[in-house]
DNA sequence: TTATTATTTGTAAGTACTTACATAAATACT
DNA sequence: AGTATTTATGTAAGTACTTACAAATAATAA
């Protein structure tokens, strides 16, 4: 049984390549058939030059949807076979202006005839099938230009992960995970400070007994994310100790933790949430922004060396 | 305006390649998304090995529709990344039997999850379009396996050429063309003999006045083919001087000339057509066969050195 | 058993593109 | 006018395959 039938559209790319390769080699056969000393890959460039002489490399590239590098190489090949002549641009000396040579012009009618035959054969071929490949390609290119495969897959996965992530309340048994996840990311970018260790080693004393909360996220049977609320005063809490394991990053787990923390803070009667971070941590900042946090103008001094930005979220209503 | 819209399906190959390239690069993005240290091109091989361990290189290649060389390279890569282990076959020492390594086995569940997500996203993508790309590829592969693009184009062109070829009756003005075309092919394979020159220089005396006929084929304003009937006796004619210019070969012009000659011979009252050729000339022999000629068992001596095969066609009815 | 042929694999080089980088000419900015 | 930036191009190297070739082992014929 064919591998592709089993795996299905997940291997769409591989399958497309296979068809592309057969099409390309069969196209080469067609040129042999007409005894034309011509390679299929020259076609788009040659055709453009024949129809509109005086265009330059970048211009041609844009028209046929390839890179200038590809066109440059093809033009070099065509020139080597005396099918085109290349001149410097008159007004702009950087440009390589391409035109058909005598030999190229002589070849053009035969190539046009051949193209007409190929076109007719291909159209008959397409008419033979129930699902039109040409139109299908067009639609697929459009669909992918609107939203890439990556973001489509990501959307699907995020949806699935959201269902599979469990938010846990902190128990003393979670202390090692709580410490591990935080130390992990701090060491990746900075060094662990004394203030960190106090809170990470004794969360009960330094966070919970002072009126704070700790949230954990479990995914695939493992604790992969943490987040804490530190009580500042009756209506202000600090969002801190936000950490997500690198293997689980990009799954929207930080966002879920953040949202849960905000809900929790509201329940505790908070009117304002505050946090400190570092401008180096781009993904974290964009997460905080997505949660509604905005940069504060005048900041208090921070106990952490690594912090150079402060943000807050006002919980009105 | 897009080049492909203008040129149309003639550039199907180029366009397929463009889509293949975007699909491939977007697939690579998906692997990044999952933090999998994995390249898209490994997928078919890895998947096969995971599902059915103990298969060898050639076996895998056949299953996924690629060459053994491609599989060999991918396996080498996978082994370098410790994702598979390769062992010599037990019974057959030539075989490279592939199985997942521990690291590969650990990766497999994540890859399966990812594949499921991609599959779902792709299926949604395909459902979005009116013309289903997956099915279109399938149909196109089938259509091309039944008849290649080359032979489809050839069939179309032959039809067109048949309309454009004109068969002319010989006039003395044609003698130079008649000689040129024959000398051209004889010199390509053999050397011109005295017997040739007599008939080619004085066709009137050696062919027509002895009751024979000469036919010429004109295509694109030029004489590109010749063929002659030499009278042997009242009911027997020899088909000779069959020549088609190399630039016009493969267009079915020889077949048209042959058919016209047979019709002519019938009109002259022939019951039997005879010809001499050489077994080196494969295309010519297949043409004669297609016209109905069959090899004769006992042959008369030929005046030409180059002839080592004789064929005949009996014109009953 | 030995010689020949076929099978299995690996390696090198080619294909039709791409991205990344380098260089020269043109344009914009002080 | 002189410098910085942008634009146009060419070249090199990479990609995911292919074909072509070479070498080793297995199967078959003599």
Automatic annotation (TrEMBL), chains A, B:
Residues 176-316 form the N-acetyltransferase domain. Keywords: Acyltransferase, DNA-binding, Transcription, Transcription regulation, Transferase. It comes from the Bacteria. The keyword Acyltransferase applies. One of its GO terms (molecular function) is DNA binding. Residues 9-149 form the HTH marR-type domain. The keyword Transferase applies. This is Bifunctional helix-turn-helix transcriptional regulator/GNAT family N-acetyltransferase. It comes from Hymenobacter setariae. The lineage of its organism: Bacteria, Pseudomonadati, Bacteroidota, Cytophagia, Cytophagales.
């Amino acid at each position: 049984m064919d591998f592709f039938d089993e795996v299905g559209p997940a291997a769409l790319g591989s399958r497309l390549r296979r068809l592309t390769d057969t099409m390309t080699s069969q196209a080469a056969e067609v040129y042999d058939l007409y005894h034309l000393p011509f390679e299929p890959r020259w076609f788009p460039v040659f055709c453009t030059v024949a129809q509109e002489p005086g265009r330059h490399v970048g211009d041609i590239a844009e028209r046929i949807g390839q890179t200038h590098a590809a066109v440059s190489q093809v033009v070099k090949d065509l020139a080597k076979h005396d099918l085109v002549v290349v001149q410097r641009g008159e007004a702009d000396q950087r440009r390589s202006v391409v035109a058909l040579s005598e030999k190229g012009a002589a070849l053009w009618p035969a190539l046009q005839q051949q193209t007409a035959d190929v076109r007719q054969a291909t159209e008959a071929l397409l008419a033979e099938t129930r699902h039109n490949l040409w139109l299908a390609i067009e639609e697929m290119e459009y669909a992918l230009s609107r939203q890439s495969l990556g973001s489509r897959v990501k959307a699907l996965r995020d949806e699935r992960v959201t269902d599979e992530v469990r938010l846990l309340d902190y128990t003393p048994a979670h202390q090692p995970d709580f410490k591990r996840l935080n130390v992990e990311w701090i060491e990746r970018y900075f060094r662990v400070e004394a203030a960190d260790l106090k809170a990470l080693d004794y969360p009960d004393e330094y966070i919970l007994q002072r009126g704070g909360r700790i949230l954990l996220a479990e995914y695939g049977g493992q604790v992969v994310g943490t987040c804490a609320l530190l009580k500042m005063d009756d209506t202000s809490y600090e969002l801190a100790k936000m950490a997500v394991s690198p293997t689980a990053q990009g799954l929207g787990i930080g966002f879920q933790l953040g949202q849960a923390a905000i809900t929790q803070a509201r329940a505790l009667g908070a009117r304002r949430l505050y946090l400190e971070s570092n401008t180096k941590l781009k993904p974290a900042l964009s997460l905080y922004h997505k949660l509604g946090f905005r940069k504060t103008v005048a900041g208090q001094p921070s106990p952490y060396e690594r912090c150079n930005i402060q943000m807050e979220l006002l919980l009105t209503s």
